[in-house]
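Most newcomers find our protein records easier to grasp once they have seen one. Each record describes a single protein and holds just a pair of labelled lines. A learned vocabulary of local backbone shapes supplies the integers on the structure line. Nothing more is needed to start thinking about how sequence determines fold. The record below serves as our worked example for the rest of this section.
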Amino acid sequence: MSELPPDLVFASPRKLPRAADLRGRVVVLDLAFAADGMGGPGFAKITGRFLKELGPRLARWVDHHDHDLHAQYRGDDRFVLHTKAEHGACPEIITPELVARTGPIDTIVAHFDLDGLYAAAKWILGGREPYPGADADARAVDTRVGEVSPRAQLIDKALRVHFDDAVLKQRIVHWLCRGLRPGVEHDTIVAAAADFDQRASEAVALASRYTVEDDIALLHLPSHPRPFDKTELLLLGQRRASVAIVVDGTTVNIAAGFDSGLNFVTLLELGGGMPTRVSVPLARLDLALAKIREALRSR
């Protein structure tokens, strides 16, 4: 077992690393099981294959996204699985006791959003928040409910614009773990966050295209739009109606407030994911609209 700091690998539920490329014992944080109802490969070919290839090297899998297959793993204490309703964000699940019980690890595989990065930092710190209120910040960002501190706003903006920048994500985790000191890590985050405002402005311009009917704000994006922030665009739609839908090429992005009482994973039979923000293929748009309208009427 290496005494080096753990390797940091960032992933998404449908784009996992190759198990063979991961060093030693592995902890997976804030990564949902791949859903079967979203088009393309599902659990068996993504999450299931990854678990099989990783085998006994999996030390812990901690997650807070809904999935039909959670029940199958409740007998394996390596899995700490909750729903979004139980825990709005992943870091609050991570405790000093959980980290200590897991023992030394070599690699952390974390979701590439703020929630995942905060979870990785907290694990590295032995289950301690990188700063007082970090868990609450992660919950507020991931649910879009509640106040967010300026430092978390900075990180959230940086990640929403540069979500594919692995170096930025490494620097964010290091900055959190090293006491949020001034220096190159902080400067990198500030520079990345500065790019957000332009994309947010473009989202405001695109939001004028929303049409609202039956408490659903629907927007079909034009061909080749200028860079914009999709989360911001969906949030702007939610100011106009309970549900915001953005059709982006062949993908339908659906979102509602965390406290809306809606669960698109169940409603659209997706099998897993975040209950109030999902994506489905364009071919399912009409069916999704019909089911959402029915759910809104019955609330």
